[in-house]
Amino acid sequence: MRRRPSKSDPRCSFCGRSHSQVEKIITGPQVHICNECVKLCNEVLAEEKQQTLPWETGEMPKPTEIKAFLDEYVIAQERAKKILSVAVYNHYKRIRTSVALDEVELEKSNVMLIGPTGVGKTELAKTLAKILQVPFSIADATILTEAGYVGEDVENILVGLLQAADYDVARAEKGILYLDEVDKIARKSATPAVSRDVSGEGVQQALLKILEGTTANIPPKGGRKHPEQPMIQMNTRNILFVCGGAFEGLDKVVSQRVGKRTMGFGAEAGDEANPEGDAVLPLVQPEDLLAYGMIPEFVGRVPVLTTLDALSEDDLLRVLTEPRDALIKQSQRLFAMDGVEAEFTDAALRKIVALTVRKGTGARGLRSVIEQSMMDIMYDVPSQEGTTRLEVTGEMVERGIEQYNSEDEEEMRRKRA
Q: Which helix (H) or strand (E) covers residue 137, if one does?
């Protein structure tokens, strides 16, 4: 039996109900709230959280505007930026309209980026998400295996996208997911193997439905699925998948296809027997990916194919200085926080580029060269009172790299001893 409310019972400051009329009342300094009002507040907050994305209500960026934004962050790769701009524009235009014209349903066009390491594949996908203000996540294909084997299930690539959307499923379902190192899941052999290829062809098979569009059950925090674990359902139909990989050796596959010399009257004087390298990679076709080890079903679900060129020394010099978030600008900002105006001479920039080219890691190696060459300077400058200006020369960069390497060698000798 419920007792009758008395005047001394605390009442909810919002709805006025007493303690005997609700399950719980949370009391505070001169204010009270019941569990029913807490539930209502949570529903209001959830509705406000599910806000529409800017491109859904405002003006959709045109392909030329998307490419202009990419130009501010990524150097060179003009053809790749143009292809990506058109693909992304058509993808989100399809989501925005979601109207079947003459019973024609528009299908999703995922993107494949092929190019050596450090040329801007990841940066392109990240910048696309930035201009559209959609959730973005990077997943590594090398850790994926078939369900039931040691490794990550393919559904786990969606966990990062859900976390980037603050667990708002509706926003996550319109995001961009970059699947890196996708060339590592190619078939290990063209002939059937004795053991099951659980991290190669098996992963490609498992990714098919997710790439095309399906309702996936994903664990909120990733990891293996358990029967009693709560799952979150996410529809991948409107998620744009951008796959990237170096595809080492693909140029040889392409050259074998396009470099076959014709014989007889059809032969041309300008035919090359075996063109290789960067000159032949832009000629890649889906059939070359099949010969490389990708299965036909996977290639068919990633119809937009583009290649990225290796960066020259002049391109790397532009990467250092021109983008909105250029590494030199970042270093200057760090020194400015200590009241020091830093200036890099042209010789210093050229030396950084030359050292990066030796590493062979593309633009990704620029940051490590800068960090290594500037380590001693960044260590000393904050403690030097009265220093307001710093000029970084080529000799300082080279001396900093030599000092960094000598300290590493000394540390290795100590460990061996």
A: strand 136-140
> What is the DSSP code string of 362-387?
TTHHHHHHHHHHTHHHHHHGGG-TT-
Q: So what's the pLDDT on residue 265? A: 45
> Which of 365, 294, 318 is closest to 72 using CA atoms?
318
Q: Which is more confident, 42 or 239?
A: 239
- When pLDDT is cut at 50, 70 and 90, the band that residue 410 belongs to is low
Q: pTM for the whole thing? A: 0.76
For 160, the token pair is: 């990062």
- CB environment 144-178: b (16+ within 10 A), e (fewer): bbbeeeebbbbbbbbbbbbebbeeeeebbbbbbbb
Strand partners, 180: 140
Beta carbons within 10 angstroms of residue 376's beta carbon: 15
d(CA 78, CA 124): 11
> Considering only CA atoms, which of 164, 154, 156, 163 is closest in space to residue 219?
156
Average pLDDT over residues 141-152: 67
**Predicted pLDDT at 273:** 44
Q: What is the pLDDT of residues 10-45, one digit of tens each?
A: 788 888 888 788 888 888 888 888 888 888 887 776
Amino acid at the residue 178: Y
Q: Looking at 248-383, which runs of residues are DSSP E strands? A: 304-307, 341-344
Strands 232-235 and 215-218: antiparallel
CA distance 130 to 123: 10
CA 297 to chain centre: 23
Closest CA to 323 of 63, 76, 109, 60: 76
How big is the chain, counted in residues? Answer: 417
Q: Tell how strand 176-180 and strand 240-245 pair up.
A: parallel
Please tell me which residue, 178 or 277, carries the higher pLDDT value.
178
Three-class DSSP category at 18: strand
Q: What is the pLDDT of residues 106-121, one digit of tens each?
A: 788 899 999 988 899 9
- Residue 163: which region, alpha, beta or left (left: phi > 0; alpha: psi -120 to 50)? alpha
CB 179 within 8 A of CB 244: yes
Contact call for residues 139 and 160 (beta carbons, < 8 A): yes
Q: How far apart are CA 334 and CA 352, in angstroms?
A: 18
